[in-house]
Amino acid sequence: MSDIEEQTEPKAIGAKITDADIDRQRQQIGISQFVHEHPFNRQVSEDVIRHYAFGMVGDDNPLWHEPDYGATTRWRGQIAPPLFGSSTGVNETPPYTPELKSLFKGLYRGVGRYNVGARWRLFKPMRPGDQLYHDLSVDDVQVKESSSFSGRRTVLERYRHLYVNRNGEPVAVRYESFVNAERGGSKEVGKHAHLSRHVYNKEEMAEIDRLYAAEQRRGAEPRWWEDVCVGDELVPVVKGPFGLVEVICTHMGWGLGSTYGGGPLRYGWKMRKKMPNFYSEDRYGVPSSMMRVHWDADRAQDLGLPAPYDYGQMRTNWSAHLVTNWMGDDAWISALESEVRMFNFHGDTTVMSGRVADKRIEGNDRIVDIDVRGTNQRQEVTIVAKATVLLPSREAGPMVLPQPDSDLIGRGAQLMTEAARRLRANA
């Protein structure tokens, strides 16, 4: 085994995006994908909802944590944070035929993959005891031959994740976007070369503490549509300083093996045998997951980054946290769209802020649009989002949950019907 000092060159950063992979991914558009791994949460329960709120969101809202509190709300029980669906949903798509297996073999091997945002539509609350099902497909593929992100070729891919209940009724749908970038490009561009991990002074920490103490949750007091004005500012939510504990807690709530594959010990060994290109040797000679860029400073430096960074999905959840604090228990986020613009490095602190951008009436719905942004201690905006919120009205009455589009309703019914047919055939 080599000594540490001998392993000084960055490893596994030279992979290229090929035309063949791009063509193959475009052929995948609209085809349901077989998922090998079980979801982190096969069934919704009181505990897994709490774990997600604790670890992925960092939100102590009693609506996510306390069934007795939830029983006093219009939901009549505990419900999950809005974006909880990403941790659950049984995928019943059958294994690929030989032809589809060739089409869906690994893409962009060794190339960096970065979350750049998501668009959620939310139709029903997720509750303890719910069994959700998940349908995954490629929705769009776009190519840039030269990108400011990495200085090299990039591919922007979007996936549709549909979540339905036992009745086949859509509960939520998310369209999640990733950019695939040749890893060596970010090191060559050097756009982060001037950065180092932030060192806080006492005044900066005191300001962070002040923001935590000043956080407000509307809770049981209704946020009436009539009382809202365009231009109203939301009370900020602070997230940070971000570090290893936050990464660990994220996986406690969101999972690990069901998100990107892998896991500890034997699980890691099995994944290395199955996906060897998802691993590269670290400075100690140990094959380690490419995911380690979220916690391994050496790997981050190999890629020209000053420190490990978060998962973009975390900041999308933080956007929802800001909005649910403001809107109260009687309201509903019907849509949330985020754009992750920059890295959130270990040591960074993000302040989530928001402003009412519009209010309107559509039929019986009383709607508010909120512009959200996350700003770090360097005054860089690292995420922007837009939330559409349904509020209760003194005139029109309680908020009514939104209805899915007909194509999603049809797809949900098809998922349940096809799965039942396969089960009967195999009985």
Rg, Å, rounded: 22 Å
* Structure classification: alpha+beta
Gap from first CA to last CA? 52 Å
Strand content: 15-25%
The largest sheet has its strands arranged as 2-3-4-1-8-11-10-9-5
- How much is the average pLDDT? 92
Q: Profile the largest sheet.
A: 9 strands, antiparallel
Shape: globular
Which architecture per CATH? Roll
Q: Looking at this structure, what is the CATH superfamily?
A: Hotdog Thioesterase
CATH class categorisation: Alpha Beta
| Count of individual domains | 1
Low-confidence stretches: 1-10
Number of strands: 11
What is the fold named in CATH at topology level? Thiol Ester Dehydrase, Chain A
Your description of this structure?
The protein is of the alpha+beta class and 427 residues long. The protein has one domain (4-426): Hotdog Thioesterase (Thiol Ester Dehydrase, Chain A, Roll), CATH 3.10.129. Helices cover 28% and strands 23% of the residues. It contains twelve helices and eleven strands. The chain has helices at 19-27, 46-57, 62-65, 67-70, 98-103, 183-189, 202-214, 244-254, 265-274, 297-302, 312-327, 406-426; strands at residues 112-122, 133-144, 154-164, 170-181, 237-239, 279-281, 287-289, 332-340, 350-362, 365-375, 381-390. A nine-stranded antiparallel sheet has the order 2-3-4-1-8-11-10-9-5. A hairpin with a 5-residue loop joins strand 10 and strand 11. Helix 2 (46-57) packs antiparallel against helix 8 (244-254). It is globular and about 60 Å long.
